[in-house]
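Batch manifest, entry 17 of 40.
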Amino acid sequence: MLELATGRFLQEGRNVILLGPPGVGKTHLAIALGVATAELGHRVYFTTAMDLAHKLAKAVDGNRLHRELKYLMQPKLLILDEVGYLQFDAVQASLLFPVTEGFVAGEGDGLLFLVALADDLEPYSEPSLL
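Output type: structure tokens
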């Protein structure tokens, strides 16, 4: 965690994923790293995955999805909390994909920071998927 607090992961263009069961402090650590990033002079955006999905759905309804996606690519660090905590329907998942894919592909100026539950990795633990 001390290494992450230096902000080096931002300079190196690395994504960070915190995994663990509920109640171990993933969100607390994510917020602390967000504050440290802001103190380094970078813009930070914190939201839950479900809130972001709802916000993007409203943007679609208001015919402003492109503008909202552009806005979400501006921060140096996007902290996306509670990934995997609640189930997304197909529309919500399809709206979140451009945001996450943009950061992972390096299209945004920032980095994606995911906070997920360890149980979410179970489907990926099968040898055929590794």
